[in-house]
Design brief:
By secondary structure, this protein is of the alpha+beta class. Helix content is about 10%, strand content about 10%. The protein has three helices and seven strands; from the N terminus they run αβαβββαβββ. The N and C termini lie far apart (about 185 Å). The mean pLDDT is about 75.
Amino acid sequence: MDSELDLPEPNWNRFQQPAAEPDAPDPRWNRFAGVKPETAWPRRLATVLTVVLLAPMAYAMPASAAPRKAPTVQKETPVKGGKVPVLPPLADPASKQAWKAPPKVTWPAAGAAELGGPAESAATLSAGFPVRLAPAAKGVAAAEAVPVKVELLETDLLGVAMRVSPGQGVTAAKASGKTRLEIDYSGFRYAFGGDYGARLRMVKLDECALDAKPAATCAAPRPV
């Protein structure tokens, strides 16, 4: 007997996977997911800073004063001038002392004189002998000084060479003392320049220095 029964459809595909749903985006990899809406303040602030930084670099027009009228000029009456007398130049006090020509130089001539004591010759002293006796000490007259003999020598030395020795009648005790002499150099004080007299010095020489060619062993000049 044929009969049809409504049987349930066998579930042959009970292991079949359900239909795949569409892939949803992973919010972890989306940095824009959940971001707040952007505000306009950063853009406005950037614009303001740009204007502030660029404003000083802009070319500024130079300021100019407003034009004004020229001031009025005071009119003055010109003054008539006259001739002024020219005074003669004043006399120059230094012109009297100025050298018009080189000064005359007179070196003392060779000779000898006895200074001090009875043997002193007045004729020799009056003939321009440049050496005189000077007081030996304060309060002692020149006449009381020890007599000496002074000889002016002719040599090739620069300056005046003279030999001083004890005078006549001077004992050995007095000869060991000191005698002061004065030398007049006014005749040759300008011999080598205007200040030659200020550069003069007195030195002591040995007899060998008077030779034309002094030996190497001759002592050097010693200041007196």
